[in-house]
Design goal:
Helix content of chain A: 55-70%
Structural class of chain A: mainly alpha
Number of helices of chain B: 11
Strand order of the largest sheet of chain B: 6-7-8-3-9-10
Largest sheet of chain A: 2 strands, antiparallel
Strand content of chain A: under 5%
Strand order of the largest sheet of chain A: 1-4
Helix content of chain B: 25-40%
Shape of chain B: extended
Radius of gyration of chain B: 26 Å
CATH topology of the domain at 78-98 and 127-291 in chain B: Rossmann fold
Radius of gyration of chain A: 22 Å
Oligomer: heterodimer
Distance between the termini of chain A: 39 Å
Strand content of chain B: 15-25%
Order of helices and strands of chain A: HHHHHHEEEHHHHEHHHH
Largest interface: A-B, 32 and 45 residues
Structural class of chain B: alpha/beta
Low-confidence stretches of chain A: none
Chain lengths: 368, 293
């Protein structure tokens, strides 16, 4: 047998250029941004304002969600319109800890969070048991969204719910969760949610140093998740995911059980959103059931679609572009934002099915 | 009980043991106990009874329409069986039942003598060694030819093994061999979606070969192929015969003539006739329902 075929070798995690860009991003997040914000004087044109730090920090949280969306939607073809739930669950887990960190400094000077005093509760509800412990909170941030996603996914995938039906029930799930969290009896602060945070790990939360720490942490998390996603996608695992997206029956008749694969990536993607939510809450200083509104989950899908599905870097860019535009438009023309968002989505679907990443690729090919 | 009775008993036992000892090695089987059973190895196809696939009285109906009606059929190891029949005869439904996609209302489906296929899911049946090619070529269009074959490769197919999978040299050789067999060695890195219809058919057959199945179910494998491609497919199937069992559903009579020894005619969900192509072609009933006068 003459085997003079050169089989393609395993692709590297990132190309040479890719690593350069990655390291550049790392330097910007860890060194340049802190320097420009904390060291460069406010009067200097190079000073990075606190507003910019807050905005970029928030957008990086969104970018983590967009990355998670890309894994489940772009690569596996499962459109989730309920990822806002996982984001909010992570956020609430963090929020509970931050509420307990307020200590006796609340308006009612009680050891219980203000809203509980207001509701005339005398003791902490059972689900607040671990809210005093930071390590336990870290575990809950990952475990709660992960567990909810696992149970939901297990039944949905086992029943072979696919396509638009799956999208609809995820949308229903986030709506149901929102209604649940709106209620005062559930013990999550009702429609006000949690706010007025004072400290994290006993360190005041509203200082420039803490803000920058959270910013750097978010950036590092985003970059780490990008590498993890890239590694998963390049493994045979990633190709099985794409195969599930393109021809699920063929995957089954090739001897793979798609349920395990879907459940793995679905749960992982939910956990990523949970972590993003937990990083988001201390930066914006509030979490309420509005984060679970159906529109929020749909927006996540739009970030991924605008950036370009199944490219990993695309959705991250998409999150930056859409949210950048949002922060500018909601100030300049507040009434037009939703129209713009709708037009953007329609435009991308019609003219840029592969998003910004696809456009760049096309332009590059054209230039050659 | 008295001591002398005890003593007698002991003597009798001793005599009996001595007799048994003397008889040892004196039997037809050389002293070994006769054994009629074989060890049932789980998840392995037992073909000692000369049948690799065995369907008995299988029926399935969709909304009252009997797609399969008391179908009984069996296939020998290494056999190449052609299935013909008019549209709606239940050919594809039969393959759905064998591969676990459709559950029959009644009947039994066995792979070898011991594996009850009705107890397994689609991926499990594929892992047991039944490969299937669909009527419409189904390949992973966004993946390259290489990646398509690599996915089909017979190996552990759990999540963890897929994350840490690396192609070893034996597997790479196997992959290269299949690439030659299906004449796609020049298109290794092409996306499967860019292949011609015939090439997609070949790629799908190649994916089956990578799975190394004991039984291949092929639903219209040469549909849309050029004459030359059809000829090469016939050659390939003939070379597979013997090592694998094949069940081929086709409408192309020339193709069937080239490859077939045994032809089964399905009609209205059950076997109408069975024999060589010449035999069934002269069968009155077959002419009536399928071949036309």
């Amino acid at each position: 047998m003459s085997t003079n075929i050169s089989l393609p070798s395993r692709a590297p995690l990132l190309s040479g250029k890719g690593w350069s860009a990655f390291i550049l991003a790392l330097i910007v997040v860890c060194a340049v941004a802190p320097l420009l914000n904390l060291v460069v004087p406010k009067a200097s044109p190079f000073h990075m304002s606190d507003y910019a730090v807050a905005l970029l920090g928030r957008i990086m949280c969104y970018a983590i969600c967009a990355l998670a969306m890309d894994l489940i939607w772009g690569f596996t073809g499962i459109l989730s319109l309920g990822h806002g739930v996982f984001f909010a669950l992570g956020g609430y887990a963090m929020g509970m800890y931050l509420m307990r960190q307020i200590g006796l400094e609340g308006n009612y000077k009680s050891s219980l969070p203000d809203f509980m005093v207001f509701l005339d509760w005398k003791t902490l509800p059972w689900h607040w048991t671990f809210s005093d412990s930071f390590p336990a909170t870290l575990i809950l941030i990952v475990a709660v969204p992960g567990l909810v996603a696992f149970v939901f996914g297990f039944f949905a995938f086992r029943s072979r719910i696919k396509g638009v039906y799956f999208s609809i029930i995820t949308q229903a799930m986030t709506f149901a969760a929102m209604l649940l969290f709106f209620r005062n009896e559930t013990g999550f602060g009702g429609n006000n949610g949690f706010t007025d945070f004072k400290r994290i790990l006993d360190i005041p939360i509203a200082t420039p140093g803490m803000r920058m720490t959270l910013f750097v942490l978010t950036g590092l998390t985003l970059l780490a998740f990008f590498l993890l996603a890239r590694w998963l996608v390049l493994a045979k695992f990633g190709r099985v995911l794409q195969a599930i997206r393109d021809a699920e029956t063929r995957v089954m008749f090739s001897g793979y059980n798609p349920i395990g694969y879907k459940l793995t990536i679905w749960t992982l993607s939910a956990m990523m959103c949970g972590i993003a939510g937990a990083l988001y809450v201390p930066q914006v200083g509030i979490i309420n059931p509005g984060e679970m509104s159906p529109a929020n989950s749909i927006e996540m899908a739009i970030w991924a679609a605008v950036g370009g599905r199944a490219t990993l870097i695309g959705p991250i860019i998409g999150a930056f572009v859409v949210n950048g535009a949002k922060s500018w438009l909601t100030v300049a023309y507040p009434e037009f934002w939703l129209y713009f968002l709708g037009a953007l989505f329609i435009g991308v679907t019609l003219f840029l099915p592969d998003g910004i990443a696809g456009l760049v690729k096309k332009l590059k090919r054209g230039a050659k | 009980m008295t001591p002398d009775l005890l003593e007698q008993g002991t003597r009798r036992v001793e005599a009996r043991m001595a007799a048994l000892q003397a008889a040892k090695g004196n039997t037809e089987s050389g002293g070994r106990a006769a054994g009629f059973g074989r060890l049932k190895v789980s998840d392995e196809v037992d073909v000692t009874h000369g049948r690799i696939l065995y369907l008995e009285d299988v029926s399935v109906s969709f909304d009252g329409f009997k797609a399969i009606n008391k179908l009984s059929l069996d296939i020998a190891p290494g056999e190449l069986r052609c299935i013909i029949g008019p549209n709606g005869a239940g050919k594809t439904t039969m393959m759905d039942i064998i591969t676990g996609k459709t559950r029959p209302d009644e009947g039994r489906v066995y792979f070898g003598s011991t594996l009850d296929l009705l107890r397994y899911t689609e991926p499990e049946i594929a892992q047991l060694g039944i490969g299937r090619k669909f009527q419409k070529p189904t390949v992973f269009e966004q993946l390259t030819v290489f990646e398509n074959l690599e996915l089909a490769l017979k190996t552990h197919k759990g999540v963890k093994s897929s994350i840490f999978f690396r192609l070893d040299s034996t597997q790479a050789d196997r992959l290269a061999e299949v690439l030659h067999t299906i004449h796609l060695a020049g298109s290794v890195t092409r996306p499967a979606g860019n292949l011609s219809h015939g090439q997609k058919q070949w790629l799908e057959i190649g994916m089956l070969l990578m799975q190394d199945p004991k039984l291949l179910l092929l639903d219209e494998p040469v549909a849309g192929m050029t004459d030359e491609e059809t000829e090469r497919t016939a050659e390939l199937f003939l070379s597979l015969k013997g090592r694998h069992s094949l069940m081929v559903v086709e409408h192309d009579m020339n193709f069937i003539r080239t490859i077939s020894e045994m032809v089964t005619v399905l009609c209205d969900g059950s076997v109408l006739a069975q024999g060589t192509l010449d035999q069934v072609q002269t069968d009155e009933r077959v002419i009536e329902v399928y071949l036309g006068r």
